[in-house]
Inverse folding.
C-alpha cells in the first residue's frame, strides 16, 4: 500500500505550494473545525446536564450512543468501501499510461501529488454524509432492535403487523444504503480508472482494462443483487400504497403489481449473476442484455401492465373488483384508529313542538352544566380583569376542566397567569431584567363555564370561581388559598431561559412576583428554590452555556454565581418531546391543581404510517379547526399517519419542571417497544394517583382524528362505502373567518335522551357530505375516574334527516325576529358589534338543543374586553334569547321556568294544556294597585332569597333569585305604566 503515497516515477513532482500559504490554510481549517467541534461539544455537554437534571439520563445515553453507533458503523462502511475501491482501482491501474486527452492529463497531474490525502478525504467526506444520514434513522433502528410482537396479522401476506411497523422500514433503509454504497463506489472507481487509463473512451476497442472490467462488474452485480432484494421487500409495501379510493392492497396490486415484483426479483437475480460471470468472461454483451431486460421488465411489468389491468379490468367493474379490498381497508382503518367498538344508536334529531312546563323544566335541568362561556372569546376578559401586571398574560385559547366545588362538579374555564415579557417596557428590556428578574408567572385564573352574572358588567358578566380562592386585590386563583405553590416557572409562554437562585453575595432576592397574601398590591421579591434547573456555579459550566446560548453574560455577569441555576426548555410540550422524542405530543397542554401544585397535563400519542391496509391521512388536516394552533407532530418524517393511540399521559410540574410519563394504553405494541428501548422512562399506569386521575381527560387531537375518519368509516359495508351514499363530514365552524372545522367541545352531556347521569364528555357533530343538516352526534366519555366508560365513543344517528346543522342553526338564530329586535341596538352601534361564541349542540329530552353565547366588545380602546351579553337557544322551531340560559329558554318556550307557567304578558296558554279561560295560579289578581303591591312583595322576597344564597356561596340560586326579582320589578313597572295611562284617559 506504500506505493499509494509514492510519487509517480515517470513524471517529475510538481512544485509544492509555499510553506506560509500552507500554514495559513491549515490554521484556517483548524480554527473552523475547532469552532464546530467546540459548539458540538457544548451542545452535547449541556444536553447531558439537562437530561440528568430532569431524571432522564438513560434516554440521553440511549439516544447518544445509538446515534454515535449508527454514524460510526454506516459512515465507516460507506467511507471504507468507497476508499477501498478507489485504492484497488489505483493499485491495478495499467503500468504503462497511454497518452490521453489533455484534460485528463492535467487532472491526473494535479491529483497525483495529493492522491493519498485525496483518497482519505473522499472516504471521510462520503462517510460523514452516510453517517449523518444514518443518524436520522435512530428511531427506525430502535424499533427494529426492540420490536415487540403485535399479536395480529395482515389480511394478505399473513405476517405479524409488527413486521410492517418495526422490521420492514429498517430493512428498506439497509437495502437502500447498500445500493447507495454500490453506486457511489462505482462512480468513484470509474473516475480513478479513467484518470489512470483503466477506462479509455477515446479508443474503439479494449476500452476497459481487465482490472477495471472485473471491479466494475462486481460493483454492478452487487447493485443489481441489492435491487433484487429491494423488489422482494417492495412486495410487502403494497399493503401501504395510496390509491384513489383507499390505502392498502387493491385488485391491481394483488393481480398485477405483486406478480410483477415476483418476476422482477428473478430477473434481477439473473442479471446479477451475469455481471458476476463477467469477471471471468470479460465481455459486456451478456450483462448488457441482462440489464436491458431488467429495465424493460421494470417498465412493462412494473408500470404498463398494472395500468392495463387497472383501466381494462378494474375500472369497468370497479365496485365488484375492489369490494374485498375495500372491506379489508375498512376493518384495518377502524382498528388502527380505535373505531372498532363505537356504540351506535338512533336519536330523534330535531325536537317537535314546544315542551310543556314540566318538560321545559326537565330540559333546563339537563342543561344546568352547559358551558355558555366561550374559552376563546373570554380570553381578553381574563386578560383585562385578572392580568394584575402588564407582564402577565394567559394563553390565546383558555382551557376547560372540571373541579369539585362545594360538593358539586363544576365545569370551569381557566388559564395560567404566565409571564409575558413583551409587556415589559422596551427601555427595561435588558439582559439582566429579562433573564434574572422577570422569570415566572403566578397562579391560575378560573371562572364558571356554566354561569353568567345577571348584572355587574365590570367583569364581563363572568362569574369567577370565588369559592376556591380569591383575594380582595381582584385576583382569582384556583387554589385552596395559601395551600399550594402558585409560581409558574414552566409554561406555554415561558421565556427561553432564566437565571435563578440568590443573585448576589448578600443573598438578595431579585425575582419579581406577586405578593402571597392576595390582598396586597405590593411588589414581591422572591427566589426560586425548586429542585429543577441546571447548576451553573462552575466557570466551565458557565462557559458551556455561554457558547450554547451565544451569551457572554453567563461568564461576565455578577448575577451568575455559585448559587445560580439556569432554567430552559421550559414549555411543557418541549420538555415532553425531549424526554420522549418518540411520542407525538398533543398540541393543547392544560394546567391543573394536583396534590398542592400546578401541573401541566399532556397527552402523548404513538403513531405510524405503516399499519397495513389502514387509511393514511395528513395529521394536520385531520385536526385542523378554528382553535388549532400547532400540530406538535414530531415522530415521523411526514405528518401522514394511519395508526394512532393515546399511549402516554405526561405531567410537567409548573414550578420545578419535573416531567413524569405514565403508561396509559397498556396494550399498545409501539409503546411496549419504546418502553423496552428506554427502560424506566415510563411509569406504570398504577402510579397515577387519584387526584391526578380526576383531571385526566380524553385527548382532543385523538378525538379530532377519530371523528375525521369516522365521517367515512362509520360505513362498514364495502358496497355502500364505494358508492359514498352515506358519507359524512365534520361541519365548518359557522362563526370562523375561514373555512375550517368546528372544534369539539367539553361539557357535561347525557349522550342519549333516556340517560339520567351526565358525563364529562368531549362532543362533536357530523353533517351529510356537502349538506347542512345534522347526520349524527358524537360523544366520548372524558372522565378518567370512570374506567369502564372512559374513552367509549357513542354515536347518535339522527332519525330525522332534516335536523338543522350548525350553519343552518346560526342562520335561523340570526333571522329570528326576537333576536333581531334584541340585537338591533348592538348592530346599529358600530363600536360595539355583537360577537358570536361557540355553538353548542346537545341532546336533551325530545331532541337536540343549540346554545350560542353573544359577546359585546368595544372596537376602540386598548383596554376593552368581551362582555357576555346574551345567550341564544334553539329547540325545535323555537328560538329564544336572554341574558342567561334560563332566560333564553323561557323566551323560547314562553314559559316562566321557575313556575312552569306561561310567561307573564304573553296571554298564551301553556302548549299542550287546554285554555280554561281562568287565570293561571300564581299570576297577579285583583286591582292594579294590589297587583303592583304583590309584584313588589315578590321582588322583595326574591332579593332576600338572593342575599341568603350569596352568603351560602350558592351562585346558581343567587342568579336565579335575582332574575325572579328583576322580572317582578319589571312587571310592577308595566302595571304602573298601565295605571298611569288609564288615569290620563279618565
Amino acid at each position: 500500500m506504500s506505493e499509494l503515497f509514492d510519487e509517480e516515477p515517470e513524471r517529475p513532482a510538481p512544485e509544492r505550494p509555499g510553506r506560509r500559504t500552507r500554514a495559513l490554510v491549515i490554521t484556517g481549517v483548524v480554527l473552523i473545525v475547532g469552532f464546530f467541534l467546540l459548539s458540538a461539544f457544548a451542545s452535547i455537554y449541556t444536553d447531558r446536564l439537562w437530561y440528568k437534571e430532569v431524571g432522564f439520563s438513560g434516554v440521553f445515553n440511549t439516544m447518544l450512543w445509538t446515534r454515535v453507533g449508527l454514524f460510526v458503523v454506516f459512515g465507516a462502511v460507506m467511507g471504507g468501501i468507497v476508499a477501498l475501491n478507489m485504492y484497488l482501482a489505483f493499485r491495478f491501474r495499467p503500468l504503462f499510461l497511454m497518452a490521453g486527452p489533455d484534460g485528463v492529463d492535467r487532472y491526473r497531474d494535479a491529483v497525483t501529488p495529493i492522491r493519498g490525502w485525496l483518497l482519505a478525504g473522499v472516504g471521510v467526506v462520503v462517510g460523514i454524509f452516510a453517517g449523518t444520514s444514518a443518524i436520522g434513522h435512530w428511531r427506525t433502528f430502535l424499533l427494529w432492535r426492540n420490536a415487540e410482537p403485535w399479536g395480529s396479522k395482515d389480511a394478505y401476506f399473513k405476517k405479524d403487523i409488527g413486521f410492517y411497523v418495526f422490521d420492514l422500514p429498517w430493512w428498506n433503509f439497509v437495502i437502500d444504503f447498500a445500493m447507495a454504497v454500490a453506486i457511489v463506489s462505482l462512480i468513484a472507481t470509474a473516475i480513478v480508472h479513467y484518470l489512470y487509463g483503466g477506462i479509455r473512451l477515446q479508443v474503439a476497442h479494449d476500452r476497459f482494462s481487465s482490472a477495471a472490467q472485473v471491479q466494475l462488474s462486481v460493483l454492478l452485480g452487487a447493485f443489481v443483487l441489492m435491487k433484487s432484494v429491494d423488489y422482494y421487500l417492495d412486495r410487502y409495501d403494497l399493503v401501504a400504497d395510496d390509491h384513489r379510493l383507499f390505502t392498502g392492497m387493491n385488485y391491481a396490486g394483488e393481480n398485477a403489481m405483486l406478480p410483477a415484483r415476483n418476476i422482477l426479483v428473478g430477473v434481477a437475480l439473473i442479471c446479477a449473476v451475469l455481471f458476476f460471470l463477467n469477471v471471468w468472461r470479460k465481455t459486456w454483451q451478456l450483462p448488457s442484455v441482462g440489464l436491458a431486460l431488467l429495465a424493460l421488465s421494470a417498465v412493462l411489468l412494473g408500470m404498463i401492465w398494472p395500468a392495463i389491468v387497472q383501466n381494462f379490468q378494474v375500472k369497468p367493474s370497479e365496485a365488484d373488483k375492489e369490494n374485498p379490498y375495500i372491506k379489508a381497508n375498512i376493518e384495518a382503518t377502524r382498528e388502527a384508529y380505535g373505531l372498532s367498538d363505537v356504540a351506535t344508536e338512533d336519536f330523534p334529531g330535531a325536537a317537535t313542538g314546544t315542551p310543556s312546563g314540566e318538560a321545559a323544566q326537565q330540559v333546563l335541568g339537563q342543561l344546568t352544566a352547559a358551558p355558555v362561556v366561550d374559552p376563546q372569546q373570554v380570553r381578553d376578559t381574563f386578560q383585562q380583569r385578572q392580568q394584575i401586571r402588564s407582564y402577565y398574560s394567559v394563553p390565546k385559547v383558555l382551557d376547560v376542566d372540571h373541579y369539585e366545588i362545594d360538593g358539586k362538579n363544576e365545569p370551569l374555564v381557566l388559564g395560567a397567569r404566565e409571564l409575558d415579557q413583551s409587556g415589559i417596557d422596551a427601555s427595561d428590556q435588558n439582559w439582566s431584567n429579562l433573564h434574572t428578574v422577570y422569570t415566572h408567572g403566578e397562579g391560575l385564573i378560573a371562572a364558571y363555564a356554566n354561569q353568567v352574572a345577571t348584572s355587574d358588567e365590570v367583569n364581563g358578566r363572568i362569574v369567577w370561581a370565588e369559592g376556591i380562592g380569591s383575594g380582595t386585590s381582584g385576583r382569582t386563583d384556583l387554589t385552596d388559598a395559601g395551600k399550594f405553590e402558585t409560581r409558574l416557572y414552566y409554561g406555554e409562554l415561558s421565556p427561553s431561559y432564566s437565571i435563578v437562585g440568590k443573585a448576589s453575595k448578600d443573598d438578595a432576592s431579585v425575582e419579581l412576583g406577586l405578593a402571597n397574601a392576595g390582598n396586597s398590591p405590593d411588589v414581591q421579591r422572591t427566589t426560586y428554590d425548586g429542585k429543577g434547573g441546571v447548576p451553573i456555579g462552575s466557570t466551565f459550566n458557565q462557559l458551556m452555556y455561554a457558547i450554547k446560548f451565544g451569551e457572554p453574560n453567563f461568564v461576565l455577569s455578577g448575577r451568575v454565581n455559585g448559587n445560580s441555576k439556569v432554567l430552559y426548555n421550559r414549555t411543557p410540550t418541549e420538555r415532553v418531546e425531549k424526554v420522549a422524542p418518540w411520542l407525538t405530543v398533543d398540541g393543547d397542554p392544560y394546567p391543573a391543581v394536583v396534590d398542592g401544585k400546578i401541573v401541566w397535563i399532556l397527552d402523548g400519542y404513538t403513531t405510524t404510517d405503516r399499519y397495513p391496509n389502514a387509511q393514511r391521512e395528513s395529521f394536520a388536516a385531520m385536526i385542523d379547526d378554528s382553535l388549532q394552533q400547532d400540530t406538535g407532530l414530531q415522530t415521523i418524517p411526514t405528518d401522514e399517519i394511519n395508526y394512532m393511540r393515546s399511549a402516554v399521559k405526561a405531567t410537567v410540574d409548573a414550578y420545578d419542571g419535573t416531567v413524569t410519563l405514565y403508561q396509559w394504553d397498556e396494550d399498545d405494541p409501539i409503546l411496549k417497544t419504546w418502553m423496552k428501548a428506554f427502560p424506566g422512562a415510563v411509569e406504570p399506569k398504577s402510579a397515577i394517583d387519584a387526584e391526578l386521575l380526576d383531571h385526566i381527560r380524553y385527548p382532543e387531537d385523538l378525538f379530532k382524528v377519530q371523528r375525521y375518519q369516522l365521517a367515512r368509516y362509520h360505513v362498514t359495508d364495502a358496497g355502500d362505502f364505494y358508492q359514498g351514499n352515506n358519507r359524512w363530514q365534520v361541519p365548518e365552524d359557522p362563526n370562523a373567518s375561514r373555512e375550517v372545522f368546528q372544534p369539539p367541545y367539553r361539557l357535561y352531556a347525557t349522550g342519549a335522551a333516556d340517560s339520567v347521569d351526565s358525563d364529562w364528555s368531549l362532543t362533536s357533530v357530523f353533517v351529510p357530505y356537502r349538506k347542512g343538516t345534522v347526520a349524527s352526534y358524537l360523544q366520548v366519555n372524558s372522565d378518567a375516574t370512570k374506567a369502564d366508560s372512559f374513552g367509549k365513543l357513542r354515536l347518535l344517528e339522527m332519525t330525522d334527516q332534516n335536523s338543522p346543522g350548525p350553519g343552518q342553526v346560526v342562520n335561523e338564530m340570526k333571522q329570528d325576529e326576537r333576536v333581531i329586535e334584541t340585537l338591533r341596538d348592538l348592530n346599529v352601534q358600530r363600536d360595539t358589534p355583537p360577537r358570536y361564541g361557540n355553538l353548542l349542540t346537545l341532546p336533551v329530552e325530545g331532541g337536540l338543543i343549540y346554545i350560542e353565547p353573544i359577546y359585546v366588545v368595544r372596537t376602540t380602546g386598548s383596554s376593552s374586553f368581551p362582555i357576555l351579553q346574551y345567550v341564544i337557544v334553539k329547540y325545535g322551531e323555537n328560538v329564544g334569547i336572554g341574558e342567561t340560559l334560563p332566560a333564553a329558554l323561557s323566551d323560547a318556550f314562553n314559559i316562566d321556568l321557575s313556575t312552569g307557567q306561561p310567561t307573564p304578558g304573553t296571554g298564551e296558554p301553556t302548549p299542550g294544556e287546554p285554555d280554561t279561560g281562568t287565570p293561571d295560579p300564581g299570576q297577579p289578581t285583583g286591582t292594579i294597585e294590589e297587583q303592583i303591591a304583590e309584584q313588589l312583595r315578590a321582588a322583595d322576597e326574591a332579593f332576600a332569597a338572593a342575599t341568603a344564597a350569596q352568603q351560602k356561596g350558592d351562585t346558581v340560586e343567587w342568579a336565579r333569585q335575582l332574575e325572579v326579582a328583576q322580572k317582578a320589578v319589571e312587571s310592577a313597572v308595566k302595571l304602573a305604566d298601565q295605571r298611569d295611562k288609564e288615569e290620563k284617559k279618565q
